[in-house]
Amino acid sequence: MGCMPACKFKPLNNKRKNQGVNNLYRDLREFLAKLEEEGQLVRYTDEILPEPDVRHICRASGDMPNGPAVLMNNIKGYKGKRLVVNVHGSWANHALSFGMDKDTSPKEQFHELCNRWDNYPGEVKFVDNAPCQEVVIKDDINLFDLLPLYRINPYDGGYYFGKGNVISQDPDEPDNLDKENVGIYRMQVQGKDIIGMQALAFHDISIQLAKVEAENKPLPVAIALGVDPVLSFIASTPIYYDQSEYKFAAALNGIPQELTKAVTSNINVPAGAEFVLEGEIIPRQRFPEGPFGEFPGSYSGIRKQVRIKVKAITHRKDPIFENLYIGRPWTEADFLLGLNTCVPLYRQLKETMPEVEAVNALYQHGLTAIIATGNRFGGYAKSVAMRVASTPHGISYCKNIILVDDDVDPFDLMQVMWALSTRVRADKDVIVIPHTPGMPLDPASEPPGMGNKLIIDATSPAPPDSVMREVRMVDRMPQALEVEKIIAELQKSAGK
Amino acid sequence: MKCARCLEDTAAKVADAPDGSGAWEIYLCSRCNYSWRTTEEEEVINPEKRDPYFTLDGVDMDDLMVLVPVPPLKK
């Protein structure tokens, strides 16, 4: 099925469609070079402390309009080690990661990604002498020595990886690449060669972990730090269990994903990663982990979680440690988890509900989602809400679901508020479904993991529903688009 | 060494500044897994100044919630 058979919000002209899809980045370094060329990467060379200076730099770069990535190389005590943050931390950087112009709006990026989704699966390519294995460390591992660690938020329980790509295989089908999972899960360094990890029940890796724990066996894993930006994007995208993140990254990138075998296991790792930490999850044991300043903007609790024993570290020469800031929104995490939440939800709805035009689930990984849909018959939009609430991601995340008509742009909050203001009949259009799954990190989820669904149907009623008293809408004015260009030109020369 | 968070005598040094500058040391608690650097802000590493909400004084680690339970062993 085509992605956008009748989309009214398809502003991309031919010039912009699939722009740059065949000229993307094999690894983090290639992308950083592009960011620098575009003025979207700065080098911070003054001496700074790991705490609190790095935190302030992260916060500042993410808060700035079109904030740049920041590469640091003069962190006190870590002299010579390199750290980069905010790589995805603006819509400009996000657009560049997909080869789009840096002024491409989130809505335009959404539609472009919807188009590229049809390219799945892309190709993978195995390479020898991979850059990520230029240096191999198997003895005297000390993560506190090797990486320029820092405390992301003041009351985090330790030093965290916020952007580590965890790779693991299905124990029943270790050679099935489609079931090899790449996911970004938060990780806390808990010892020289020990890492705590949060893997929640609905995460794909938990399916694999449950299988080996039932047999009291460890689960081999590899953690890739500093990978090409599209792989980080897809590793935090809620795709299906048997869809390969590597093949998806290749599909969106337009170039094969280059892989190599880990040095201590059968796992396939990104050949161009800056660091790869190889190890295994210790079976049937849980250890204190947290708190951690999380994406809802609040600290998580301290829970007992799984632990990884690191057995080997491989890295590139002069490696760059990539991390992100996460905390009170908006942060780099919100940019990274924005469109990669919207697109799969849209695609999954579209499979059975072609009336759906666009999904804006940019808000905290989709805790709030706004869906534009045709209202095929009375109550139909509410069925769309129930469908999004039963998608793999929506089950736990999508709790505030707003439906708007297909002539409303869900990415334009002024239009959304107009729809709420003029089309909601509270007695008929506001529904709360209690005692549903919830997202445990959401402070409103009580007990953690439970929640409810709020549906606000702001679409116009359709028969056989009683239609509102007869009104005529003021028509759209497409002619004004051309006039906008004329006025924009006039404005450029105004005031000179 | 006393842990800055759980206040038990279960912490030990795990690293010096790797560039040899002696700029700081990192300590780690083997009980609650808290780690800290000697150059961090007082309100983070000094138990006297730390927000009590973020201390673990008197908390039994066995009482912490397990988010993903261990499955039963296959026979």
| CATH topology group of the domain at 122-326 in chain A | Pnp Oxidase, Chain A
The number of helical elements of chain B comes to 1
The strand line-up of the biggest sheet of chain B is 1-2-3
> What gyration radius of chain B follows from the Cα positions, in whole Å?
16 Å
Query: How would a crystallographer describe the biggest sheet of chain B?
Result: 3 strands, antiparallel
The ordered H/E elements of chain B are: EEEH
- Which CATH class of the domain at 122-326 in chain A applies here? Mainly Beta
* Overall spatial form of chain B: extended
Report the end-to-end length of chain A measured between terminal Cα atoms.
51 Å
Number of helices of chain A: 14
CATH architecture type of the domain at 122-326 in chain A: Roll
Instruction: Report mean pLDDT of chain B, rounded to a whole number.
Output: 95
Based on CA inertia axes, which overall geometry of chain A fits? Answer: globular
Radius of gyration of chain A (CA) equals 23 Å
Percent of residues of chain A in beta strands?
15-25%
The helix-and-strand class of chain A reads alpha+beta
> Which protein chains make the most extensive interface, counting residues with beta carbons within 8 Å of the other chain's beta carbons?
A-B, 53 and 37 residues
Spatial gap, N to C terminus of chain B? 44 Å
Helix fraction of chain A? 25-40%
| Classification by helices and strands of chain B | mainly beta
Low-confidence stretches of chain A: 1-20
